[in-house]
Amino acid sequence: MEQKKLIIAIDGYSSTGKSTVSRTLAARLGYAYIDTGAMYRTVTLRAMREGILRDGRVDEERLARVLETITLEFKNGEMYLDGENVEKEIRGLAVSGNVSAIATLAPVRAALVDKQREMGRAGGVVMDGRDIGSVVFPRADVKFFLTATPETRARRRHEEMTAKGERVSLEEVEANVRQRDHVDSSRAIGPLTKTPDAIEIDTSHSTIEEEVEHMLTAIRHASRD
Ligand code: DC
Question: Less Cβ crowding at N or C end of the chain, within 10 Å?
Fold first, then answer.
């Protein structure tokens, strides 16, 4: 009998190692990995390029037209905007600084949630984000919620940024991590929240390999039920 292709939802705070764990888990299961944060980042990039987003202000009418025509695709785990590989650009500081303004807008969330449901419908996916287990797939087969202390997350993010040559202090990064936590958890639509059926994993003191093993065990249990 062919094994059922599951929908695995992974939510959690930024810099918990969520995307690395999700990507690794998807590879181990032979599933597709869908990084929904990359989708919000890509809409932000297109809005910035077209001058729809300026100084934190958004032209919502023009943005609505963009949402109708935009093509978002993952190819070999990288993000493509209307056929162009934008993987590098969406991770830069400019997009990171603007993405919250876009991710809080109701029409953006509605359009992206639709696309995410379409991408995951057939199963065989690991999808990571903030609202996957709560809004996108409330009936996902297995849900995980990743946490880590703000200090741990700030240290990881600081290491990543320093490695890329960005000059920023650990204090600034920690302030930014706390600010993003606040924005992610307090927005009106699709806030970051742990649903009661999600398995919480604290990544402060574990390796990626340990976390993936923990998840695989939980997934094996769930697929037996
Ligand atoms: O995971 P990330 O840092 O790449 O996410 C980028 C932004 O998008 C972040 O501000 C949170 C937001 N986001 C969201 O609102 N809902 C999701 N499902 C995924 C990300």
Answer: N
* Residue nearest atom 18 in ligand 1 by C-alpha distance: 129
Q: In what order do the strands lie in the sheet with 32-35?
A: 32-35, 125-129, 7-12, 142-147, 199-202
Distance of CA 91 from the midpoint of ligand 1 (Å): 12
The model's pLDDT over 31-82, given as tens digits with 9 standing for 90+, comes to 999 999 999 999 999 999 999 998 888 999 999 999 999 999 999 889 999 9
- Specify the ligand 1 atom closest to the Cα of 38: 4
Residue whose CA lies nearest to ligand 1 atom number 4: 37
Name the more confident of 145 and 222. 145
Strand partners, 127: 9, 34
Residue 139 has φ and ψ, to the nearest 5°, of -110, 30
Residue 164 is predicted with a pLDDT of 83
Note the pLDDT tens digit of each residue in 100-157: 899 999 999 999 999 999 999 999 999 999 999 999 999 999 999 999 999 999 999 8
Q: Which residue has a Cα nearest atom 1 of ligand 1?
A: 37
| Domains recognised in the chain with CATH numbers | 7-224 (3.40.50.300)
Q: Using the 8-state DSSP alphabet, how is residue 105 labeled?
A: -
> Ligand 1: which atom is nearest the Cα of residue 104?
15
* 0.85 exceeded by pTM: yes
Pocket around ligand 1 at a 6 A CB cut-off: 14, 36-37, 40-41, 99-100, 103, 129-131, 184
